[in-house]
Recover the amino acids of this structure.
């Protein structure tokens, strides 16, 4: 290692020095020192230049945190911690070239489904370095994303449908209703009859329900932040929506409100307070979404029901709305899809089913 004087800071008048370490030989250190002295003499050396990718990342992340939601920030920092910094962290920022980036992305594509998002995050640091004058170009801009090729044995393999038809949903809710966990029955009934997202349901308060107008206001969602902290933010799209509720669902909710009052009073909580959560844990705070998954797995296994996820209930609601004759616009507004293509993709599932039923009816009619 070596430490060298590089001049006086014009802003403070104080002496400035820099330290370099990690050389394998004395000769290597002497050569680097000689080059530095030449840069200092010519006035081309910049002490403020970040040396490694990690250095630039440390500068960039402070600004990035102020520009995004906490949940997005938490997700992005996990990308860097798990995948990006272990590869690029120790590289000198100006030494990272296209080949290094291309090889890394190729490896990510083999191992990771979300490699495109990770590549995009890694590229942001280079863009920041350009703005700061540390480098002239971003090597990630020239990386070609690997094509996602289907394997031969997967060409004709269809993914299992993650939604219920009318009969499956009725059976699912009946099994829940006769169980001992009334709270889970209320939650899954609400998910199936509103199409709301799990995080939106777990953030609901009683103030969000208008009994007289038979309406439900959806304007927030529970999400994960830094260090897995649970907090409430705006909906996924950032847009609030108010939807109509059927009378039976309202009756079930009213019944749960009475039960909740009794159960939580025994725990020492007054559920008549403003902003009381409709679904809360034994400490009257937010549930972990994994708890909902546990409830769902229990009822599916106990009654040997067809597999579905909580998001599949949202898909179910959408599909059954179409079967009931709702328009694409009505379904889009009710589910809060900002992109109509999302609604149309589910509509395609429904029309495929209708076409299949049509040919069956034709075949039975002819009977030849």
């Amino acid at each position: 290692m070596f430490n060298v004087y590089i001049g006086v800071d014009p802003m403070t008048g104080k002496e400035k020095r820099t330290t370099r370490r990690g050389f394998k030989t004395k000769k290597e250190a002497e050569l680097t020192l000689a080059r530095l002295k030449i840069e200092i003499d010519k006035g081309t050396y910049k002490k403020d230049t970040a040396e490694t990718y990690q250095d630039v990342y440390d500068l960039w992340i402070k600004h990035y945190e102020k520009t995004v939601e906490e949940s997005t920030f938490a997700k992005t920092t996990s990308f860097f911690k798990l995948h990006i910094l272990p590869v690029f962290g120790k590289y000198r920022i100006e030494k990272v070239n296209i080949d290094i980036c291309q090889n890394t992305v190729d490896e990510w594509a083999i191992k990771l489904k979300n490699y495109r998002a990770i590549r995009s995050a890694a590229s942001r640091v280079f863009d920041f370095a350009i703005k700061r004058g540390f480098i002239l170009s971003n090597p990630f801009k020239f990386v070609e994303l690997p094509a996602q090729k289907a394997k031969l044995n997967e060409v004709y393999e269809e993914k299992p449908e993650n939604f219920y038809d009318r009969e499956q949903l009725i059976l699912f809710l009946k099994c829940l209703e006769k169980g001992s966990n009334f709270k889970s029955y209320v939650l899954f009934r609400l998910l199936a009859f509103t199409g709301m997202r799990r995080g939106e349901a777990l953030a609901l308060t009683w103030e969000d329900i208008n009994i007289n107008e038979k309406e439900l206001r959806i304007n927030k969602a529970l999400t994960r932040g830094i260090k897995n902290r649970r907090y409430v933010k705006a909906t996924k799209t950032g847009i609030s929506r108010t939807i109509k509720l059927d009378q039976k669902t309202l009756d079930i909710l009213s019944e749960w409100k009475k039960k909740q009052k009794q159960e939580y009073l025994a725990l020492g909580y007054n559920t008549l307070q403003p902003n009381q959560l409709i679904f809360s844990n034994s400490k009257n705070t937010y549930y972990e979404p994994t708890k909902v998954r546990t409830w769902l797995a229990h009822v599916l296994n106990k009654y040997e029901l067809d597999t579905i996820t909580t998001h599949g209930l949202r898909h179910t609601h959408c599909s059954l709305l179409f079967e009931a004759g709702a328009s694409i616009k009505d379904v889009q507004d009710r589910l809060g899809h900002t992109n109509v293509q999302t609604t149309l993709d589910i509509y395609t599932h429904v029309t495929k089913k209708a076409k299949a039923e049509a040919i069956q009816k034709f075949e039975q009619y002819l009977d030849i």
In short: The chain has a mean pLDDT of 86.
